[in-house]
Amino acid sequence: MTHRILPAIMSGGAGTRLWPLSTEAEPKQFHAFGGGLSLFAETVRRVSGDAGGLSFAAPLVAANAAHLALVKRHLAAAGAEPSAIVLEPVGRNTAAVGAIAAALGHELEPGALVLLLPADHVIADRAAFLMAIARAAPIARDRIVTFGITPDRPETGYGYIKAGAELAPGVFAIESFREKPDVEAAAALLAEGGYAWNAGMFLFDPHVLLEEFAHAPKIRDGALQALAQAVRRDGVIYPDAAAFAAIPAAPLDTALMEKTRRAAVAPCAIGWADVGSWSEIWRLAEKDAAGNALQGGAAVLDGANNLVRGDGVKVCVAGVRDLIVIATADGVIVLPRARAQDVKALRDLALGNSD
Amino acid sequence: MTHRILPAIMSGGAGTRLWPLSTEAEPKQFHAFGGGLSLFAETVRRVSGDAGGLSFAAPLVAANAAHLALVKRHLAAAGAEPSAIVLEPVGRNTAAVGAIAAALGHELEPGALVLLLPADHVIADRAAFLMAIARAAPIARDRIVTFGITPDRPETGYGYIKAGAELAPGVFAIESFREKPDVEAAAALLAEGGYAWNAGMFLFDPHVLLEEFAHAPKIRDGALQALAQAVRRDGVIYPDAAAFAAIPAAPLDTALMEKTRRAAVAPCAIGWADVGSWSEIWRLAEKDAAGNALQGGAAVLDGANNLVRGDGVKVCVAGVRDLIVIATADGVIVLPRARAQDVKALRDLALGNSD
After folding, report:
1. Quick one: residue A101, left, alpha or beta (phi over 0 = left, psi -120 to 50 = alpha)?
2. Which residues lie below 8 Å from residue B197, measured CB to CB, with a gap of 6+?
3. B160, B195 contact by CB (below 8 A)
4. A345 vs B301: CB contact, 8 Å cut-off?
5. Is residue A353 predicted with pLDDT exceeding 90?
6. Contact across the interface for A313 and B334, Cβ inside 8 Å
7. Residues B35-52, mean pLDDT to the nearest whole number
8. Cβ contact, residue pair B339, A318, below 8 Å
9. What per-residue confidence (pLDDT) applies to A355?
10. Do B346 and A320 touch (CB under 8 A)?
């Protein structure tokens, strides 16, 4: 049988750890990293058309209200027409988006499953991803399925999910959620086995999700109210600003997934990466023989294992190792790869943010 | 008595070792380094008015023909009207400029001495400089006086001059010239004493210089011919391009000073620096407690002994030491302070120069 799937693309991320390329005006998901299309456009294209027992509807997009023009441009680059674009007047995290996607999914594509995806991840193996979706689809009629990424290193930046009983080939009940571990704990989880990274991608039947929002009724009711009072014009949905702002902000994971008994996990190895930091981008990038990743206008003279990227300006480095050097019209950063987590602090320093 | 002095400002330098701030379109001398005025404007202002037995005429400026607008702007910033601006259609080094300055000095300020100065040096102690000029002036009626900088470190980037017999208080015959030494030789010269750095600044009577050009008659004759065929308009002198291009290119030091018996040196400690590299600029700059020199839009989080400068863009560094980081609209460079000599190679790399 063929499963009808409505992709719901969440484009609310700010990508502050990829400053100065990722900015408020043009965040991470609207940039390309080594490929021709942006992460957003790649995400849209990945879940389109008919493939492997799946039939994808035109995507629903939830985005920051300031990014409407960007969303339209990157949808066009992906060759996609949206089912609808929901503009969030303020960010209220993924639980609110999940509730709105469920309600709109029911309305726009009755009977379809909703596939809720961040717009700013890389998935290198599309075929494996589609296969995981197809395996998860039957279970998603009764449970909320999260796609768990099979870990290949003791990563401390993600939450971990422990798989329980197998419900169907490749789909498991969830035994427990584990918050971001330290490096020793992460290594122990890897050694123990049966864990997957929580990648924040969900497949669900709208009815099931809205029922399970009994665990977070204020979020659901607030989202439905903001939607009921929305203005709709030219395929764009503007939720009521006051009602939307009143929705409690929470991730779908903690608000719902960690509470419901109707969760499931589909572990998969799909070449996933969240492209969450410049060190991650160096790890994923093509590199020269000396380990330098050069992107945009960039050159290295006698240096090793650097990430050097110039957008609109030429960046030249000599005699340095293991550095991140990023230059755009918005700013320039230089720091060791091992300190990529400090980018947010540098951004605050540059923008004069005191928080 | 009061000595009448015509300053002749040589603005032909390219400053390639200060790329990407110093560019062909706007080279080093037209930038400020820690002060409010550019090196050019500071140079002009330093030798103006009446002071300490000296009476300065309005300056003569020799500049690249492409920089006329820049020269006028920086003269205005210095509050100066020029005696004349000579536009060089091509660079022919300092001997040609010296010959032209002597000929024009004779014409514009009969009886005055000519003070030939690079436009791109720092002289922190103006009073000491003026005193050195005043001491040298009587000797300059019969000899070409070069100002020698009393060395304070075994610098390998400059030529050295050995002082001979004292001709007048603080002015000496020249015993010998010494090309740029290696670091051991430089240390030996310092230990031996009696040496001064050759700073390329000259005080002379036009008649004397033109006579001594008997050691380089082709340069003198070529310069005089280019001047005789010049177009003069609105205070700007355009030497004949073909005649000017035919002048042999040579520094005044090797073409004349090392050959004439009528040379003298006036050693002086005047806070001189040629601002020849980014490491020199770090050395001269004001620094924070951790040794970081921050210029323009620049910030450091937990780093030491760096030079960080942003012109038109904010540059933020974290966790690095002893680096030069310079960002302008023309390019970005990152390299260790100890490798500042590689800037020219980085510039060639960025501009695609193969030479």
Report:
1. alpha
2. B148, B149, B150, B151, B155, B158, B159, B160, B161, B272
3. yes
4. yes
5. no
6. no
7. 93
8. yes
9. 45
10. no
**Selected residue of A19, A302, A314, A353 to mutate for chain B interface (largest B Cβ count, 10 A):** A314
Residues 6+ apart with CB under 8 A from B317: A333, A334, A335, A346, B299, B300, B301, B303, B306, B308, B323, B325
Query: Which of B104, B122, B126 lies closest to B54 in space, CA to CA?
Result: B126
Q: What is the pLDDT of residues B203-244, one digit of tens each?
A: 999 999 999 999 999 999 999 999 999 999 999 999 999 999
Instruction: State which amino acid sits at residue B124.
Output: A
Q: How far apart are CA A175 and CA A261, in angstroms?
A: 10
pLDDT score recorded for residue A216: 97
| pLDDT single digits (tens) B86-123 | 999 999 999 999 999 999 999 999 999 999 999 999 99
Mapped onto helix, strand or coil, the DSSP state of residue B236 is: strand
A317:B334 CB<8 A: yes
Give the pTM.
Answer: 0.87
Residue carrying the six token digits 């999910």: A161
Rounded Cα distance, A34 and A273, in Å:
13
Q: What is the mean pLDDT of residues B301-328?
A: 96
Give the containing element (helix H, strand E) for A346: helix A343-351
- In angstroms, the CA A267 to CA A171 distance is 7
Cβ neighbourhood burial of A291 (10 Å; 0-12, 13-18, 19+):
middle
In this prediction the ipTM stands at 0.85
Tally of CA atoms within 13 A in the half-sphere of A270 that contains its CB: 25
Please enumerate residues of B whose Cβ is less than 8 A from a Cβ of A.
Answer: 299, 301, 310, 313-320, 323, 325, 327, 329-336, 339, 342, 345-347, 349-350
* Residue B29 amino acid letter: Q
CB contacts, 8 Å: B315 with chain A: 331-334
Which of A332, A337, A342, A348 best tests the B interface by mutation, with the highest count of B CBs <10 A?
A332
Yes or no, beta carbons of B345 and A301 under 8 Å apart = yes
Contacts of the segment B297-300: beta carbons below 8 A, 24+ positions apart: B298/B325, B299/A346, B299/A349, B299/A350
